[in-house]
Amino acid sequence: MIKVENLSKRYTSVFAVDNISFHVPGGEILGFLGPNGAGKSTTMKIITCFMPATSGSVSVGGFDVFNDSIKARRIIGYLPENVPLYTDMRVNEYLLFRSKIKDVPRRERKSKIGECLDLCGIVNVQDQIIGTLSKGYRQRVGLADALVHDPKVLILDEPTIGLDPNQIRQVRGIIKNLGEKRTVLLSTHILPEVEMLCNRVIIINKGKIAAEDTPANLLDIVTASSNLSLEIKGDSKKVEEVLKTIDDVEYVSNRITAKRDLQKEKILPNTSGKDEVNTFDIECKKGVDAREKIFNAMVQNKFIILEMKKRAASLEDIFYHITTKEEGVR
Amino acid sequence: MTKVPAMFRRELNAYFLSPIAYIVIAVFLIYTGFFFSTSLFENKVVTLKFSVMYIQFILPFLVPVITMRLFSEESKSGTLETLMTAPISDFEVVMGKFFAAFGLYAVMILSTLIYVVFLHWVGNPDYGSIITSYIGLLLMGSVYIAVGILTSAVTKNQIISAVIGIVGLVFLLIIGFVHYIVGEGFFSECLKYIGTFDHWEAFTKGLVDSRDVIYYITLTVLLLFITIRVVESRKWR
């Protein structure tokens, strides 16, 4: 449905998007993941025909976005990043105007707008002026606008940013439903969102594709080398030495420095020696679970484990792993 | 072409939802009303000529205020992105916005018809020259609006858009007077032709000269064409 080939976009001297290619088949929800300034929005602006590419080609539903722009735009529903709306219009007026310029046949306009209002949960604010609506409602008005012409392809640029948790859940629910019939390209920097919604993820960094996989596989990359966080009662130096002797442990760091500062300023009680409690961050070797060995070692040395948990993989972790791994290959 | 009416209605509504339309019309009516009342009550002449004569000196200041928001506001608030990613051509957007500004302008100009009613009441004015004056005003307005829409398309800042528009229109007006200073000659003839002033005078006398009509229409079309190109230019910049 969406075909991006060797796409590059240069702003004066920097490449915002640097030679990326990917393909989204019909009916897929593709997540576009990356930190701020990675080139997500730029790519989306090019796909939606707002901006031209410096080089490369993009086609949506078989229409080239540059040469067959109007035809491509007819099948795209786009929600830009900060949801620009005409703040002086009422919600239903706005959607009526949008449906007119998006070629919705006159007879279907009313029912289509009604459907979208209903789907996005904004029936109760349809007579309000958009400028008076809260961020969450505006987001949903923007989504309703993206849907009003029943597009085959939906391009959503950070659709849940700035919403409260309840609204995020609602918007995700809407997207999940939409994804059953449509092709969706979704950008975000929230990892759980990708896990929940997407069939496939593209991670983009500094304008290049850093990885492309299913969300589950990407998480595996990180959890394969499990990071642990341990809270242990005992003399910090001895504990650290013992931990380092465990052969599955690759790297140990103690969060003590911050704590010592606090003790100096007498915010925390000074407990050195036996009753000292320290938190250690441990990086294990890839593919091994060191928890059992750590437990045994601690028991042998009579240190008490107060807490041991796997650190949940965050986008930063995935990111760190993928970018460093890539550089290692070269 | 099919989406021009939708665009036109949205933009015209936007004008009347903001105070700008009312302020501009109020200023315009105070200005023209002053010249109308002095010519009627002090000079005791039953004519619209004087109030119409002086209109051209306020229009360069009022029209850019009307047009400044057309593109600047949209590119500043980001709505240009939603607008231009909808299946609507740049041509339709520019034309819709142009006709909306022209609609507001026409409302403003035609509100002076109340003066004609007064004239009819107190005497017997020359209706021929009144009609041609209005034709002339509408034609001149279309050029002014086209200049304003162009300056709005080049900047995100409404104030800058208005200032460039005012400077441009005042320039277009005063180059028509240059021949009084530098004397007759080929150069000042050219400037006289380019300036809006020379083409305007005939209308107030009751003449519709095809040269003047063609001048206004071609200039409008040319400026709108440039505007469309400027709006398109985001695609090749």
What does this structure look like?
The complex is a heterodimer of chains A (330) and B (237). By secondary structure, chain A is α/β, with parallel strands linked by helices. Chain A has 2 domains: 2-221, Rossmann fold (3-Layer(aba) Sandwich); 227-310, Alpha-Beta Plaits (2-Layer Sandwich). Chain A has 12 helices and 14 strands. A 6-stranded mixed beta sheet of chain A has the order 6-7-8-3-9-10, sandwiched between helices. A 4-stranded antiparallel beta sheet of chain A has the order 2-1-4-5. In chain A, α3 (91-101) crosses α4 (106-119) and α4 (106-119) runs antiparallel to α5. Chain A starts with a strand and ends with a helix. The model of chain A is unreliable at 326-330 (pLDDT under 50). In chain B, α3 (49-67) runs parallel beside α8 and α3 (49-67) packs antiparallel against α9. Chain B is mostly helical. The mean pLDDT of chain B is 89. Chain B has one domain (4-231). Chain B has helices at 4-17, 20-42, 49-67, 69-77, 79-84, 90-110, 113-122, 127-154, 158-174, 178-182, 186-194, 197-204, 210-232. The A-B interface holds A 45, 48-52, 66, 70-71, 73-74, 76, 78, 80, 82, 84-89, 93, 97-98, 100-103, 142, 145 and B 3, 6-7, 9-10, 13-14, 17-18, 77-89, 234-236.
Task: Please count the helical segments of chain A.
Answer: 12
Structural class of chain B: mainly alpha
- The radius of gyration computed from the alpha-carbon positions of chain B, rounded to a whole number of angstroms, is 19 Å
Biggest sheet character of chain A:
6 strands, mixed
Shape annotation of chain A: elongated
Number of domains of chain A: 2
Q: Sheet bearing the most strands of chain B, described?
A: none
How do the helices and strands follow one another from N- to C-terminus of chain A?
EEEHEEHEHHHEHEHEEHEHEHEHEH
